[in-house]
Amino acid sequence: MQPRDTLTDNIPPHFSDRTIPFNEPTPFPLARRTVAVIASWLVPGAGHLALGRYGRALLFFVTIVGAFVLGLSLNGHLYWPTVAEPGSTFHYDLITVLWFFAEIGSGLCYIASYALGLGMTPIPQAAASPTFEYGNTFMFLAGLLNYLVIHDAFDIAAGRKH
Question: Model's pTM, two decimal places?
Fold first, then answer.
């Protein structure tokens, strides 16, 4: 039996020169990165579509738009920042600002719904629905999830990930 040290010296070169190929992700040009980020905010998944990631684009589009539409169908409400009560420290009611920020993340879903008057039922009437809070939660989820999708599209476009 050979000692271990001499065994490694006698390995044929086609076994010892094995390297695992790893292709580094390459960044896209700045213009394409910008288009991907803006498109990803406007239409969920469109940034991935612009970068050639068709499977991800379809998955994100179906998930985010589906969550937003489901939220609207469950009597969710579209929020807009409202002026705070007199004597308040802040000019705007902070909770409506946060809710607006969460929903506007879904891009054209929010803008189109707002333009069409969907989800604009006054709060006391909408809150009477037993599914009101579920609808709001789905709409918040859609917007916040799209922020993560925008970040993912940017990371792919910047060459940080595949």
Answer: 0.82
